[in-house]
Amino acid sequence: MANQAGKRSAAQDRLSQVSNHLRSSEADIPRGREALFEKHPDDIVVTCALRTAITKGGRGGFKDTAAADLLHGAFKALLERSKIDPALVEDIAVGCVLAPGGGATEYRAAAIAAGFPVTSAVKSLNRQCSSGLQACVDIANAITAGMIEIGVGAGVESMSSQYGPQAVTEFSDLLNSVPESKNCTVPMGVLSEKMAKEKKIARNRQDAFAASSFQKAEAAQKAGLFDEEIAALKVKYTDPKTDEEKEITVSKDDGVRPGMTPESLAKIKAAFSKDGSIHAGNASQISDGAAAVLLMKRSTALRLNQPILGKYVTATVAGVPPLLMGVGPAAAIPPALKRVGITVDDVDIFEINEAFASQCLFCVEQLGIDAKKVNPKGGAIAFGHPLGCTGARQISTLLYELRRTGKRVGVSSMCVGTGMGMAAVWVAE
Amino acid sequence: MLEFRTHGYNGYSVKYSPFFDSRIAVAASANFGLVGNGRLYILNLTADGIKPEKWFDTQDSLFDLAWSEAHENQLLTASGDGSIKLFDISLSEFPIANWSEHAREVFCVQWNLVGKDSFLSSSWDGCIKIWNPHMPASIATLPTHSCTYSAQFSPHSPNILSAVSSDSHMRIFDLRTPASASNHLTLSIPIHTPPKAQPGAPPAVGIPPSEALTHDWNKYRETVLATAGVDRLIRTFDIRAPGQGPVAILPGHEYAVRRLTWSPHLSDVLLSASYDMTCRVWTDGSAVGVGAQGVKTDPMALGGGRELGRMGRHTEFATGVDWCLFGAEGWCASCGWDERLLVWDARAIMTS
């Protein structure tokens, strides 16, 4: 059987080689939505994508669980579900924002503890809120370049234990002397408040957007739409009332508040200035969580009989002024779509991270996206934004939703602190 | 025009024997070379047309062949399973030698035209290998790190060879250089380099890299090579001035060019076979009185070369073409995916 599979794949390789010869020029390369559905042996595909539940920072189910333990849980679940031989995984990239030293040491140890052999390399990386996506894109690029054959992109954040000012060292006089550099230290809430004012995004519109995020997440949770992507984790949890330590199983996002309406959100006091518009109810929650994505070439997936969830098409990163970091997706999505030759209308679902209702709303309107296509299962406002995890989390959320609804093309994107945006195009299969 | 049908097998390469003017070999593959057997045909040109003398079947597709320069009855094949086989026509059925070192499909084999005691192969595995027919293992491995469709010994020196690969580069290796980290690589020319700006002409536009599929050494001017590939353009380079970009560019083919060969008789004439189902004869514009005439019609054209004529009798991709070394200049043979070998006179299709 193995030999036959090899034969078939060699024939496919040869066929795709000849068809590449016939694409004689740039103009002949098929573009547009249909071209995205073509299957080639060298496509980078996702064969397993999952996440832990996302829980409230400081109070939720994972409040006493270290980031590395969350990651360990995600890795273990990934190995169990995909049934991949861990020895075949050559590299693991983990996105993480707050951990000192990027968490590189802990995550290497977590991979070993989860059952990866010592031959599976591990790195951690930090591109702020897009770290999880960057990790998956790095792995995809390493596979394309031939550096590795199979890899895992992951993201993790324990904001319960690592959120705070210690994540950034003090700026030198040199950095402080350059105004645009100094802007990188302005807190997200403060600059988003400014941006909301500048771009004239009224509080009632933000609240309506946030309420719909809560409502969508609540409905999705009730319908069990997150069940496929969430891997339940058994963790230790200290009851804040009784101080009793017990073991609990966390399998649901606990930040989703039922029954939220624009009216109920309108009562919350603004957090960053008296006449401001941003508050706890229309900004992303502080949360804990981890996510992992298994990536390889299509030819490898077929050889190993791995089920293909979807394929990675392309990714872009864009820089924007630090004070306008919220516009990141609006800057990063158009070049990604342009590269593959599709328009906003060709995309079925957008997962745009809801760092703040104001910036997400702005990007959606700026790009002219139909609001129905954006975050159909809710977003970070409803269930949280564990910084390094989010980018990897969106991939499982997106691919499972595309699959469930029989749709194909998805985009995941987020704004990135200090003024960047990142976007990636995915196709579900 | 003479014709022979390679029933059930799609042609990939054709070569005239360097010893007999009437003997031709064709390497062909079942199912368009995607999966299945290969077949090596030995054909004789007779007064009654083309007659098969013998054929050899192989387990995997055949993509190229080369006649031995040392022995009139022996020839090499390049196989899809990564093996190179040496067949002797005086024997039946089985090869007399088999070398399996390449990890993927072998796309090119060529005998050393000057040394005659070695041959080379190039493969999808990103390597060129140098072999001695009497030794069981290769003598040298030269990495190119990308699928190498074509490699050729210089017809002027036994130690110099060249290769073009899917990374859009032409490489020159000199085996006399000491073995070092560079693996005998002496020159690497990006094929897609636009030509240098010339007075009176608008600067050339950037051309994206594309897979190079074939190339050949000029038989008279020892520093001139021609390349062609997926971007449909035939280019000539002078390796004395590697940084100068192409000397001539010949646009015209409508799809990728699969095979290219310089005339053994005329220093400026080229023959090409393309996925556009045509074989075309070209001058690169270097001969006296040929260049710099007429109006430049294609903005890509460079060097005063032009198409002299085309043969459009193939009904599928034309994949192989070769000149006859003997007799009146101009006789050539071509093969293609239409399961046909055609033998024809290039002079008959030239327009001037």
Automatic annotation (TrEMBL), chain A:
Q: Kindly give the NCBIfam families that the UniProt entry links to this protein.
A: AcCoA-C-Actrans
Q: Name one GO biological process term.
A: phenylacetate catabolic process
One cellular component term from this protein's GO annotations in UniProt: peroxisome
Predominant subcellular localization, coarse grouping: other
Is the Transit peptide keyword given for this protein?
yes
GO MF annotations in UniProt:
acetyl-CoA C-acyltransferase activity
User: Residue limits of the Thiolase C-terminal domain?
Assistant: 308-425
Taxonomy of the source species: Eukaryota, Fungi, Dikarya, Ascomycota, Pezizomycotina
**What is the uppermost EC class here?**
transferase
> What EC number is given for this enzyme?
2.3.1.16
| Pathway the protein contributes to | Lipid metabolism; fatty acid metabolism
Which protein is depicted?
Answer: acetyl-CoA C-acyltransferase
Q: Where in the cell is it found?
A: Peroxisome
Family classification:
Belongs to the thiolase-like superfamily. Thiolase family.
Q: Where is the active site?
A: 129 (acyl-thioester intermediate), 385 (proton acceptor), 415 (proton acceptor)
Annotated Thiolase N-terminal domain ranges read 44-299
Q: Which organism's genome codes for this protein?
A: Patellaria atrata CBS 101060
Keywords carried by this UniProt record = Acyltransferase, Fatty acid metabolism, Lipid metabolism, Peroxisome, Transferase, Transit peptide
The annotated region (Disordered) lies at 1-25
Catalytic reactions on record: an acyl-CoA + acetyl-CoA = a 3-oxoacyl-CoA + CoA
Q: Which is an annotated Pfam family here?
A: Thiolase_N
UniProtKB/TrEMBL annotation, chain B:
- Would you kindly state one Gene Ontology biological process term found in this protein's UniProt entry? protein import into peroxisome matrix
Q: Which GO terms describe its molecular function?
A: peroxisome matrix targeting signal-2 binding
Write out the annotated subcellular location: Cytoplasm, Cytosol; Peroxisome matrix
Q: Superkingdom of the source?
A: Eukaryota
List the Gene3D superfamilies hit by this protein, alphabetically: YVTN repeat-like/Quinoprotein amine dehydrogenase
Write down the PANTHER family for this protein, in alphabetical order.
Answer: PEROXISOMAL TARGETING SIGNAL 2 RECEPTOR (PTHR46027:SF1)
Protein name in UniProt: Peroxin-7
Q: What is the lineage of its organism?
A: Eukaryota, Fungi, Dikarya, Ascomycota, Pezizomycotina
